Amino acid sequence: MRLSFISLSIIFSLVIASGCHRATEKTQKQPANNVAQQSTSDPSVARLKAAIEAVKSLHTPMGEPLPGDWLTTYREDGQTFDEYLRSKQTLPSGKRGVLYVQPLGAFNDTQRKVIALTAKYMEAFFNLPVKLQSEKPLPVIPERARRIHPTWGDQQILTDYLLMEVLRPTLPDDAHALIAFTASDLYPGEEMNFVFGQASLSERVGVWSLYRLGAPDKSADDYRIFLLRTLKIATHETGHMFSFLHCTKYECNMNGTNHLGETDRHPLDACPECMAKICLATNYNPRARYERLAAFCRGQGLTREQQLFEKGAEAVKNLYPD
User: Fold this and answer.
1) Against a cut of 0.90, is the pTM above it?
2) How many domains does the chain have?
């Protein structure tokens, strides 16, 4: 039986498990970044733990999964901030501190706008410079790397080909990660229907598809949904590039997801535990992070999300007065 939905979860070293894409906890080849464990006695760590406590009331603990949700398919223990501290973390360091966004293929004006906004949002989300590259046409796809879906008739491109033969050779020397967006439909292998995105931590490359995220030109509501889905996917998957595992403690941007309905239920931001991971990994002041994200949402008319970020900034202002 073919699956109707494929998880948005990143694939470390292109692992396929249980017929669906998911993160693996097996030891993988790590990129040549700073890979280290953090000291729990560091004053900045203690302050981040206090920030977790300060914003807890703004977030919803994860409830029981609904039928078809990620956790009904995959049993995961999650990853708290303390567990992240004890893990080997792949962090941006030295010259490898830039996130690159590569539009790949043809796009309409609305898709271009959303990709540009996503690059700006990623910069505020992760506190790293994000360089939006000029659009690059898709190469001529060899027959071995493309297919027409046998049931639906959709033209699809094999993700492994894009990752290893198109993106990996163009990885800039200063890239923490190179993330491509495409409007083409993707598939990871003959046993799968489609995939929203796939990436390799060891090779620092990923590709995400806009093909199934909606029709943003249909109405203002459709545009908002399309934008939010794109922001969520980009930040979730990039989070894996910092060695973040799926979150199972709160409703969180880093929750695993099996389908778009589940993605839509997840919040735009990280939970308290994952917020602290982001701030640790990228040397980010939580108050500044919340304020930058609130400003982005204000500019895009995302009022509900803006208000949540503002509440986060208010909650940590005594811990981070400057």
Assistant:
1) no
2) 1
